[in-house]
Amino acid sequence: MSSVGGGITAILFSTFMTKKCQVDYMIDGLLSSLVSTTAICLSVTPWQSIVIGAIGSGLALSVYGILERLEIDDPVGVVPVHVIGSTWGMLSVGIFAKEDHYLKYSPMNATSTTNGMNGLIYSGSGQLLLIQFIAVVMIAAWSSLTCLTTLFILNRMPWGLRLSKYEEQLGADLIEHGLAGHNIARYKVEKKLTTK
Fold it and tell me: What's the distance, Cα to Cα, between the start and end of the chain in Å?
């Protein structure tokens, strides 16, 4: 159900922003809606899933403009889909979660999915939302530290992380593989080129 909300939001967002339905907006909207509902899929109702997916899709698609203004290269949409979608998904647990009392009858003898706590809508308390927010901050801190350490080490290696400006203009296909890339219209590989 989350993908229904995400898909509708993506179509509306795409139509409003570009005056037509863009396939890449649709794909990223659907993916971000599915990522958004993953953390809470066991304990939400269908209407909540649609709302979570719609909000996740809208948040993810709205980040594209920010990435373009900051000139951040994200060709596959990792930041909007996974970072924004998963952050919203974790926070949505603190808003929409409701303890499932039927789980005590399950074969696994599970007693609760939320450790006895309900989200903001059902309890009026922001305790679970605060716990989820702290978890988001800790995951972001750990991921950033690990990533920056790895990138710092790789950048100190002889091969580095980036191509020179000249190599970027020629293209990585030519520099790394000696090819101009694929001609998708004719489905054949272009002739071999050299950088000289």
Answer: 55
Helix axes of 85-96 and 127-155: crossing angle, nearest 10 degrees: 160
Six-digit token string for 31: 């993916």
Helix (H) or strand (E) holding 159: none
Q: Which residue range(s) make up the domain with 64?
A: 2-129
pTM: 0.76
pLDDT digits (tens, 9 = 90+) for 48-88: 999 999 999 999 999 988 988 998 888 788 999 999 999 99
On whether residue 143 sits in a domain, the answer given is: no
Distance CA 109, CA 104 (A): 5
Q: Does 80 fall in a domain?
A: yes
Q: Distance between CA atoms of 113 and 178, rounded to whole angstroms?
A: 54
**158: in domain:** no
